[in-house]
Amino acid sequence: xxVVLSVAYHSLDALQQLGSDLARQSLPPICWLxxxxxxxxxxxxxxxxxxxxxxxxxxxxxxxxxxxxxxxNQGFEHLARRGWEGWIWLLNPDTALPAGHELERLSExxxxxxxxxxxxxxxxxxxxxxxPSGGWIxxxxxxxxxxxxxxxxxxxxxxxxASAAATAIPGGGAVQLDWxxxxxxxxxxxxxxxxxxxxxxxPLYYEDMDLCLRLGATGAPVLWLPALAVTHQRGxxxxxxxxxxxxxxxxSYLRFLRRHRPRWVLAxxxxxxxxxxxxxxxxxxxxxxxxxxxxxxxxxPFPTASPxxxxxx
Length: 313
Description:
- With 313 residues, the chain is an alpha/beta fold.
- It is 36% helix and 16% strand.
- The chain folds into 2 domains: 3-232, Spore Coat Polysaccharide Biosynthesis Protein SpsA, Chain A; 242-298.
- The chain is built from 9 helices and 11 strands.
- The strands form 2 sheets. Strands 1, 2, 3, 4, 5, 6, 8, 10 and 11 form a 9-stranded mixed beta sheet that branches.
């Protein structure tokens, strides 16, 4: 059984729903660990999270305004100090577990996986559509064009290559991908050397893709399990002011390009971003300025805490 880890920032309503879903699981998690990244502006209290039904809840105060990756790293460190070396299920606050037996099925699946694997589940929107919660990295400018979806899944599972890469898991085969979304991601950090951590160089978005690509380069299987799905209540999770979100997401995006894509892709995408930002500057000065600040920051060195990146195969 995994520990469930959620990173929260101004997301009380979504967390209350998720807590209710976890409490009614046929096989509850070992623990639900919530890292609160708004301990000053909107501190969480255990009594507010509807953690009934014997669900063990732990609240950890994060740093105000930290992102998803930093919150996960703090949760990983907290669990490591407690001696936990098992699986951790990263679940966004705005996810729901509608079936009531998701954890039971996951425990069966995890028993069949090597400890260094990363496993993602399907993520469906409120109306039932399959969201792109994973995909493959392709050469060229449009490197994220192949993402999991109803059509791409049918094509991948039906192809000989995907069949050869499929892993037998109860309830359906797991498809080999290059990256998974952190919205619903299972990992066993202690199985990796050094223990797996998100890179703080990616403050908002792309931290999950970077983690998958780094660990995948060391031979860790990156698998997506379409037979098990969580529901994503888009827009009901964490909220970040728009200018700050624009700066941080642009910074993560450009650093991802620097690390994982060829230089010519970085140059062309930088040029396109610069031209679009200058065109929008008169009508959207604050967001445009945030983008320009991020572009300048992205040209500097990576933070010293960034992990070493294995060479590409």
